[in-house]
């Protein structure tokens, strides 16, 4: 049974720390925030992070907010500070192949479960960004725009985004034709043009409509299993250690070899 904070008073003066402060006052801490990066991208992994911040540490995290609102330099500084000062944190990387196999929403939910489970200490309460996450092992509640109103969720968003951006920059070294270091796998005009010219790579999400369309234009088959019904109607703009293998361009031969191994 999920415990809800019994009429906890959220003090507006507490700002980004109000939710955590209210839960702590009711003895429901430590409070973990969970968020993801890369849900709307059509290439690269989905990265999910969880983070527990120390009560009373607000002054040390001045400027903490939704990672998308921070500059790249500010995110890097905040990332380093979080690794130094956070009470606990965990990061889960879900490879593109797994996203294709189970679908992005299921992968997101599963990633959030893993991120909470990998915390060093079991949290007393979990705040998730925007939607409920069934199957968490701690009482939890979704917070609308959580990465902008709850410090621990914002912290998780920074950990997830910086981790994913670094992975995508690394993939650019293997696959420079796509410009992953710039658009990080999202469907920008340049990325769309590269997809049409080269076809998708093994690091693309073949269950996404735009990737599948580019693959058909080049006569390519998925280099990894794609679950039926996993295809998305479009791309939303917006575990395991980092997976960077299989970064070559997809080929008919490579796809055939992969399918043969899967059938075996």
UniProtKB/TrEMBL annotation:
Matches recorded under Gene3D superfamilies: Ribonuclease H-like superfamily/Ribonuclease H (3.30.420.10)
Cofactors demanded by this protein: Mg(2+); Mn(2+)
Enzyme Commission identifier(s): 3.1.26.4
RNase H type-2 domain ranges (all copies): 29-220
Region (Disordered) location: 236-264
Entry superkingdom: Bacteria
Family: Belongs to the RNase HII family.
Purpose of the protein: Endonuclease that specifically degrades the RNA of RNA-DNA hybrids.
Entry protein name: Ribonuclease HII
Protein source organism: Saccharothrix xinjiangensis
Name of the encoding gene: rnhB
């Amino acid at each position: 049974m999920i415990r809800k904070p019994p009429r906890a008073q959220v003090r507006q003066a507490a700002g980004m720390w109000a939710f955590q402060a209210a839960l702590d006052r009711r003895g429901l801490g430590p409070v973990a925030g969970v968020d993801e990066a890369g849900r709307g991208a059509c290439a690269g992994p989905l990265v999910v992070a969880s983070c527990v911040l120390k009560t009373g540490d607000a002054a040390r995290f001045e400027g903490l907010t939704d990672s998308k609102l921070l500059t790249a330099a500010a995110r890097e500084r905040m990332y380093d500070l979080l690794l130094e000062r956070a009470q606990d944190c965990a990061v889960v990387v879900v490879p593109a192949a797994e996203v294709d196999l189970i679908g992005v929403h299921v992968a997101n939910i599963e990633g959030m479960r893993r991120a909470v489970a990998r915390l060093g200490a079991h949290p007393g309460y979990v705040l998730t960004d925007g939607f409920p996450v069934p199957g968490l092992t701690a009482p939890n509640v979704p917070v609308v725009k959580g990465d902008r109103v709850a410090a621990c969720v914002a912290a998780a968003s920074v950990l997830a985004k910086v981790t994913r951006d670094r992975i995508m920059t690394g993939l650019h070294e293997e696959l420079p034709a796509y410009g992953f270091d710039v658009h990080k796998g999202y469907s920008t005009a340049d990325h769309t043009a590269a997809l049409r010219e080269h076809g998708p790579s093994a690091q693309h999400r073949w269950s996404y409509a735009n990737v599948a369309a580019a693959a058909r234009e080049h006569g390519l088959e998925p280099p990894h299993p794609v679950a039926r019904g996993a295809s998305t109607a479009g791309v939303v703009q917006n575990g395991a250690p980092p997976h960077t293998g299989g970064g070559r361009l997809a080929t008919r031969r490579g796809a055939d070899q992969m399918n043969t191994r899967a059938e075996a």
